[in-house]
Design goal:
By secondary structure, the chain is mainly β. The protein contains 8 helices and 51 strands.
């Protein structure tokens, strides 16, 4: 049939073509996809099924999935791809070079009979069939595509059999062949079915965790709109988890972020049986795994370079992070919720082993390491699994760290609850005495486990709770092993008095002792303990002292293997600076008794305090670094003399884990070398009476007395000699003597004695007090009273009468109504650094 059309004065002859209107439209198809991952080949396998709706007009001929690749994405290679037939592989190899930069390589490992697979120039991976195409009402399944590409939401197209010869006249029968060609192509596209399905995509070449989590969140949103998530509450749950992971990762709380992602995976497996289709399952699971594995790989890379994504990699001081065994230095630290072990043969200059110890993903933290007499290396750590619940894990090595046992949760430690006071969690520690002992906190008190076979098996004691005064407040345990016992130090939150201690032979625990009695140090926390060459414990902790304007102090004290403690203590403080988290070790100081205490301050200074003499006590202090936190020191053997230190650098990300001896690490200038005689250091001596029933403390603190000479010069009167290891020598009667002097020779031109004292009272009044400063002759006979003022302040008294004589200046304090048996007493030195007191910055951390 011909028609004529008049347009704008022209007569145009057109031809109206008559042809069949029964085009093979694919109006509706059901396309389903599943995806699996093969760990051995690192390949994803995508299996598709198609159901041709019975109301469609056409038979299914071709199914294509978009495999285009973004220019800034990872370029995968073709290794490992499998093809169902050799001709498919040959075709792929011929066409791939021209497409390699634009597509994700795919293989076709398994296909139904008579189906083929190929990549095409339109950047798709397609399946086609030459015979017996699925007609309306029929289905096909088992169309499998493999790739290294992650599951993504990709466009897909299903094309019907399109027989041009049956549907259209030949070109010879029409006047305008070009119009017919255009019509055919238009119809060819119109009959296709287009949709989206999961298929391979290449992630960005440069990983950005935050951006990738945005992608995961978008998959949740789109899966809900596509009906792949069948419940809005389920979609909301995944959105919240991914948002939480995102915010924690942005805040560099990688361990928490990983834990949230692990929760996503746990929920995905559960919901796959109900509210997630196979498409949503693949999208959320495999992309979440990719983020998680990439973050873990980053942390492994950091660890191999002695770096950490965590600013508190070497937390806490109460646990040991470095130990020596034979010719090896063993180290452990946390990074992004993972626990890493390292080994060195040259004191940390180079490392030859790096192992991720933990297997469970999540908030693994606070590792503690020790070695046994038989040479095994033991590690415990905690993993947070809920708001207030944790697991306590253990792993060991019997070949100097070359290989490690499969990590295992300690018996009955898979659901350890902690209270609101125990904000850091169980804080597990481990040490060897007669046997291997692990201790950790819980809301029911301290718990412990023992092993008599190098950690292969652990026993739960019949009574496994170390019952204390405030069980749900116990925290910061520290454990050290002697030859026949272990010493345990800990504190109670909101207890203003003291750290506490116990000892155990592996079968039972002693009663608890108050380590800080007689010190007038309150708010005790962050304690650490070790064993010295004489098999006695020594300890240091952080607390608050009344002698500082503002700031926290570190207190050191020696103990004994019967769980008693020396009468003497030493305090190190600094105005306006918190001295935090001491870690200490005994070491052989050229044949002398050596102690090293390393700690950080609220200004991120790493300080080293070293004992240089025991009788009388003498200390040096230096600055190792000015941008560090959570310092730690090696667990030393009794003969070793070179402690190794570590801390977490705070100046860069990722954070360097600094390790080495003090000689290699001292970047800062000495702040006070030789505490007893250095300008910028204030030395005092403190005598303390603590009334147990009243919980009241009276402290009397003396500055070194000074003699003023006739020409105006002054000379310092040394305090009475003392020893760190005094026990049973200081009592209520003689304690005040130590605020005075031994026998000294008064200069011939001496005129006056300057005396500065300070009284501090905590709690209710202990008793009425009377103070006397007496002068005794060389034989100890009373000569005169120089001062009787019972208030704080400085007085200057005339001593010209005693010029040229050998005398003793002896203070005393009389407290009325006090029974000596009702009080604890202590005496010690207090060193306060003043050279940095102008830096009145608030503390950054605990």
């Amino acid at each position: 049939m011909k028609t004529y059309t008049i347009m704008f004065g022209f007569i145009i002859l057109t031809s109206e073509i008559t042809f069949s209107q029964n085009l093979p439209y694919l109006h509706t198809l059901t396309i389903r996809a599943t995806s699996t991952f093969e760990n051995a080949t690192q390949m994803y396998f995508y299996s598709y099924s198609l159901s041709n709706d019975q109301n469609n007009n056409g038979n299914v001929w071709v199914f294509e999935v978009d495999i285009s690749r973004d220019a800034n994405s990872i370029a995968f290679d073709t290794s490992g791809l499998i093809f169902a037939t050799s001709w498919m592989e040959s075709a792929f190899r011929r066409h791939y070079p021209s497409l390699s930069s634009r597509i994700i390589p795919v293989g076709f490992p398994s296909l139904p009979q008579f189906w083929g697979g190929a990549v095409s120039s339109n950047l798709t991976g397609g399946f086609d069939k030459d015979t017996l195409m699925p007609a309306p009402g029929q289905s096909v399944s088992g169309l499998v595509l493999m790739s290294r590409g992650l599951p993504g939401i990709r466009r897909c197209t299903v094309k019907p059999v399109f027989n041009v010869f049956a549907l259209y006249p030949s070109l010879d029968e029409v006047d305008n062949p070009d119009s017919l060609d255009a019509k055919v192509e238009q119809d060819r596209e119109a009959v296709n079915f287009s949709s989206v399905i999961i298929g391979p995509y290449a992630p960005p070449a440069f990983f950005n965790g935050l951006t990738f989590l945005d992608t995961v969140k978008s998959y949740v949103t789109r899966s809900r709109s596509l009906g792949w998530i069948t419940s809005q509450s389920t979609a909301n749950k995944y959105t919240r988890l991914v948002d939480s992971a995102h915010s924690n990762l942005r805040a560099n709380k990688r361990g928490v972020a990983k834990a949230k992602l692990d929760s996503v995976l746990l929920n995905v497996h559960t919901d796959s049986a109900s509210t997630l289709t196979s498409e949503a399952y693949a999208l959320i699971r495999f992309n979440t795994e990719y983020v998680l594995n990439t973050l873990r790989a980053e942390d492994s890379t950091f660890a191999a370079e002695n770096k950490s994504s965590s600013a508190d990699a070497t937390m806490s001081n109460s646990a040991r992070h470095l130990v020596k065994s034979g010719s090896y230095l063993h180290g452990v630290f946390a990074s992004g919720g993972e626990i890493f072990y390292r080994r060195s043969t040259n004191e940390g200059s180079m490392w030859t082993q790096t192992h991720r110890i933990n297997t469970a993903v999540g908030q693994n933290a606070l590792p503690c390491i020790t070695t046994t007499q038989n040479g095994s290396v033991q590690i415990v750590w905690q993993r947070q699994i809920g708001d207030s619940t944790y697991e306590v894990w253990h792993s060991y090595s019997q070949d100097d760290g070359a290989s490690w046992s499969t990590p295992a949760i300690l018996p009955d430690a898979a659901d350890v609850g902690v209270s609101g006071y125990q904000t850091e969690g169980p804080m597990p520690v481990i040490a060897e005495g007669k046997c291997l002992v692990a201790v950790y906190c819980s809301n029911e008190g301290l718990r412990y486990r023992i092993s008599e076979d190098e950690g292969n098996n652990w026993q739960v004691p019949e009574t496994d709770i170390i019952n204390g005064e405030y069980n749900d407040r116990v925290r910061f345990p520290s454990l050290a092993g002697g030859d026949s016992y272990v010493s345990l130090i800990y504190d109670y939150a909101d207890d203003t008095y003291s750290p506490w201690s116990r000892i155990s032979d592996g079968t039972s625990w002693s009663d608890e002792s108050t380590v800080g009695k007689g010190t007038d140090i309150s708010d005790a926390e962050f304690s650490c303990v070790t064993i010295d060459r004489d098999q006695n414990p020594i300890t240091a902790w952080t607390g608050t002292s009344s002698n500082l304007t503002w700031g926290k102090v570190i207190t050191f004290r020696s103990g004994y293997s019967d769980n008693s403690w020396s009468d003497w203590f030493t305090i190190f403080g600094q105005n306006f600076v918190d001295r935090l988290s001491p870690s200490l070790a005994y070491y052989n100081n050229d044949g002398k008794y050596g102690v090293g205490i390393v700690h950080h301050t609220s200004q991120d200074f790493i300080k080293l305090i070293k004992l240089t003499s025991v009788d009388p006590p003498s200390w040096d202090i230096s600055t190792l670094n000015e941008s560090g936190a959570w310092a730690n020191i090696t667990q030393e053997t009794y003969s070793s003399g070179t402690p190794i230190y570590c801390w977490t650098d705070q100046s860069t990300f990722p954070h360097k884990v600094i390790v080495g001896p003090s000689s290699a690490l001292a970047h800062g200038k000495d702040r006070a070398a030789g505490l007893t005689n250095t300008q910028g250091v204030s030395q005092k001596r403190r005598a303390v009476v603590y009334h147990r029933r009243l919980r009241a403390t009276l402290a009397l603190e003396f500055r070194p007395m000074k003699i003023v000479l006739a020409n105006g010069d002054t000379t310092v009167v040394p305090f009475k000699k003392s020893s760190l290891r005094q026990r049973g020598k200081i009592n209520y009667s003689n304690m005040w003597d130590y605020l005075g002097s031994d026998v000294i020779g008064v200069p011939p031109n001496a005129r006056r004695l300057v005396v500065s004292k300070q009284f501090d009272l905590r709690g209710p009044s202990v008793a009425q007090r009377k103070f006397f400063l007496r002068v005794l002759n060389a034989s100890g006979t009373f000569v005169a009273v120089l001062d009787t003022t019972s208030t704080s302040g400085t007085v200057s008294v005339n001593i010209a009468l005693y010029a040229g004589m050998n005398v003793t200046f002896r203070p005393s304090l009389v407290l009325s109504g006090i029974e000596p048996a009702s009080v604890d007493v202590g005496v010690g030195d207090v060193f306060t650094l003043t050279d940095e007191s102008s830096k009145q910055s608030q503390p950054k951390k605990k």
